[in-house]
């Protein structure tokens, strides 16, 4: 396929792709943008509506307060005023006194000057009730039990707006703006009110012209619809229409709610607390989006066509034709092998650089052909020399291999010699040492006859030295086995409390000889470890023995508790403690705290190293904390054995 054809198809694909992307993406982007613009415009409209309605309500509230300043309206003496406490629609007749007539005139004047007020009235504590115009039906009526009276009486210092309530003598749903009438001492003797029916509110809301098609609704703080185009929905609960979305409406000051076929945009009046709603159908927004997308697509369509024509003409002159010329020349070189070609391309940019590069490449190929022939001759000479070097290196490697085999044999022989030495030391030294310890023990017990004090002292020193030497041999054998990876542990269920008691029984005499006391703090609950009982006992003996060795006075404390799935054993002493710089070397073989201490306290320096290795073989940890001059604490943690049910 020709480059010109490929470029054309590429532009066609890009053209279609751009149109498709715009066709899919633009409606989404425009939908969000238009919806936000509509929301902002609607909220601004609702603010204006709220401002106008708030002014109306504010004027009514102010005028109600001013009406209470009329002396005859607030006349304390309500004797002779109309009362409906025992009225009957069949027999009731109005008997209006001059004082009451003046009040009615003021109330009616208020009603006529406020177009959205349909009734103005006064209720008294005596039960009297005066209205701006006669009631439709003079039925029994006690104003003191009505919501408007109760609200005004409970808030005597404020002009209040009632919740919507049903009229007694008409199907109207009213909202009352009421203010209590009070004596100088603050007690209430009546309530003045002005009613605005939901029909009047609906007429006011319906008279407002919206910038976009839509329906306005008015809802109070509790979700009761105060005004809507459909009279049947007045005084109904907005939950019947919004369902579980009502909480979002009542819980936010403004926002937008998506309904099945429309958007509901709402705004909350800061003064009234009521919700102003605009319901806009989807079709209105979709129509605006469709018109915008069509205009954008037409613009992009013609712009892409013009851009494509200009681009294709430029590409043909500057890239496609020069590349075709270069292609013909390279094909001729490949076919004939003739490198003597004259490339005549006079364009700038990458194509011109490519033509220059091909010319340079042809010259370079000619030069490389000459060098290649020369190099081939030299390579033949180097090949012969390389074969000789390989033979020499092979001989050297064979000699080195023989040397390595000899060194390996020597190392294996040395290892066997070490094993033989350790076995000999184990048998030849431990056996006589055990005999010495045993025989001196018999003599010290007086079984062979009485001893004087000096003999007893000397034999005791012999026995202690033999025990020390035996411990040294055992430690060296243990550390050798550990380092060689030959020390094995025999695992079985081990009761830690029993091990601790055995260790204390063994070392208690040594502690008492130094005037020390060993105390325990052990959990009562049985604690088991799946490990080697002899090696665990060896761990604790090393730690307690160290504590006794480096403590001159005070106590040795052994603690044991469960922590999660681990058993934690701590050995605390009140001894000399450990300097900070010695802590890192503490578990190294043949290391003691310092030279002076090593001379004062006998030992091999292997105990803690062996202890650490034994703890690790049991998959545990060991740590130490110390305060120089006050004592140290060694802590061992071992995995507890899982209980099987």
What does this structure look like?
The chain is 53% helix and 17% strand. By secondary structure, the chain is α+β, with helices and mostly antiparallel strands. Among the domains are: 70-201, PAS domain (Beta-Lactamase, 2-Layer Sandwich); 205-284, Beta-Lactamase (2-Layer Sandwich), CATH 3.30.450; 489-639, Histidine kinase-like ATPase, C-terminal domain (Heat Shock Protein 90, 2-Layer Sandwich), CATH 3.30.565.10. Strands 1, 2, 3, 4, 5 and 6 form a six-stranded antiparallel sheet that branches. Strands 8-7-11-10-9 form a five-stranded antiparallel sheet. The longest helix is centred in the middle third of the chain and has 79 residues, at 350-428.
The H-level CATH homologous superfamily of the domain at 489-639, spelled out, is: Histidine kinase-like ATPase, C-terminal domain
The fraction of residues assigned to DSSP E strands is 15-25%
Low-confidence stretches: 595-599
User: Distance between termini?
Assistant: 79 Å
Task: Please give the radius of gyration in angstroms.
Answer: 54 Å
Helix fraction by DSSP (H/I, runs of at least 4): 40-55%
Number of helices: 14
CATH topology of the domain at 489-639: Heat Shock Protein 90
DSSP summary, beta strand count: 18
Q: Kindly name the structural category.
A: alpha+beta
* CATH architecture label name of the domain at 489-639: 2-Layer Sandwich
Instruction: Give the class-level CATH name of the domain at 489-639.
Output: Alpha Beta
Shape: flat
* Overall pLDDT metric: 81
Main sheet overview: 6 strands, antiparallel
């Amino acid at each position: 396929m020709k480059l010109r054809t490929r470029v054309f198809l590429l532009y066609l694909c890009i053209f279609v792709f751009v149109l498709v992307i715009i066709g899919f993406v633009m409606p989404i982007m425009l939908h969000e943008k238009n919806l936000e613009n509509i929301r902002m415009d609607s909220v601004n409209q609702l603010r204006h509506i709220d401002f106008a309605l708030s002014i109306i309500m504010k004027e009514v509230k102010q005028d109600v307060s001013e009406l209470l300043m009329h002396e005859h309206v607030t006349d304390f003496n309500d004797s002779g005023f109309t009362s409906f406490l025992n009225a009957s629609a069949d027999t009731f007749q109005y008997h209006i006194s001059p004082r009451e007539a003046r009040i009615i005139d003021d109330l009616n004047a208020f009603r006529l000057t406020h177009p959205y007020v349909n009734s103005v009235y006064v209720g008294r504590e005596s039960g009297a009730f005066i209205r701006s115009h006669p009631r439709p039906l003079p039925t029994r009526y006690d104003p003191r039990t009505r919501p408007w009276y109760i609200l005004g009486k409970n808030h005597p210092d404020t002009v209040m707006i009632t919740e919507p309530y049903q009229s007694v003598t008409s199907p109207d749903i009213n909202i009352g703006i009421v203010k209590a009438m009070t004596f100088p001492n603050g007690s209430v003797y009546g309530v003045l009110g002005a009613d605005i029916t939901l029909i009047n509110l609906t007429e006011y809301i319906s008279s407002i012209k919206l910038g976009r098609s839509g329906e306005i609704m008015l809802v109070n703080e509790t979700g009761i619809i105060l005004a809507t185009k459909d009279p049947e929905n007045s005084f109904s609960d907005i939950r019947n229409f919004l369902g579980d979305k009502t909480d979002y409406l009542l819980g936010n000051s403004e926002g937008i709610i998506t309904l099945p076929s429309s958007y509901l945009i709402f705004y909350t009046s800061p003064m009234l607390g009521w919700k102003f709603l605009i319901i806009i159908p989807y079709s209105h927004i979709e129509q605006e989006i469709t018109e915008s997308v069509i205009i954008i697509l037409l613009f992009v369509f013609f712009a892409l066509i013009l851009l494509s024509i200009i681009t294709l003409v430029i590409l043909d002159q500057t890239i496609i034709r020069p590349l075709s010329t270069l292609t013909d020349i390279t094909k001729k070189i490949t076919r004939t092998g003739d490198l003597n070609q004259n490339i005549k391309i006079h364009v700038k940019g990458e194509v011109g650089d490519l033509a220059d590069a091909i010319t340079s490449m042809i010259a370079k190929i000619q030069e490389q052909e000459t060098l290649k022939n020369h190099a081939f001759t030299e390579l033949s000479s180097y090949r012969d020399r390389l074969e000789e070097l390989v033979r020499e290196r092979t001989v050297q490697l064979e000699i080195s291999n023989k040397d390595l085999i000899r060194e390996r044999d020597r190392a294996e022989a040395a290892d066997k010699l070490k094993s033989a030495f350790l076995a000999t030391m184990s048998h030849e030294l431990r056996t006589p040492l055990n005999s010495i310890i045993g025989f001196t023990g018999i003599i010290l017990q007086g079984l062979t006859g009485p001893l004087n004090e000096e003999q007893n002292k000397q034999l005791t020193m012999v026995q202690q030295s033999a025990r020390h030497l035996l411990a040294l041999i055992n430690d060296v054998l243990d550390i050798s086995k550990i380092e060689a990876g030959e020390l094995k542990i025999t695992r079985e269920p081990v009761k830690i409390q029993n091990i601790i008691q055995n260790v204390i029984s063994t070392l208690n005499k040594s502690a008492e000889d130094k005037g020390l006391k060993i105390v325990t703090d052990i959990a009562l609950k049985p604690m088991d470890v799946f490990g080697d009982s002899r090696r665990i006992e060896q761990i604790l003996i090393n730690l307690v023995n160290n504590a006794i060795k480096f403590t001159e006075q005070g106590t040795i404390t052994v603690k044991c508790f469960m922590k999660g799935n681990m058993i934690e054993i701590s050995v605390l002493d009140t001894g000399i403690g450990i300097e900070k710089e010695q802590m890192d070397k503490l578990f190294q073989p043949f290391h003691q705290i310092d030279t002076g201490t090593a001379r004062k306290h006998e030992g091999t320096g292997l105990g803690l190293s062996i202890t650490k290795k034994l703890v690790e073989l049991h998959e545990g940890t060991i740590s130490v904390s110390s305060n120089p001059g006050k004592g140290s604490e060694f802590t061992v943690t071992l995995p507890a054995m899982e209980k099987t049910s």
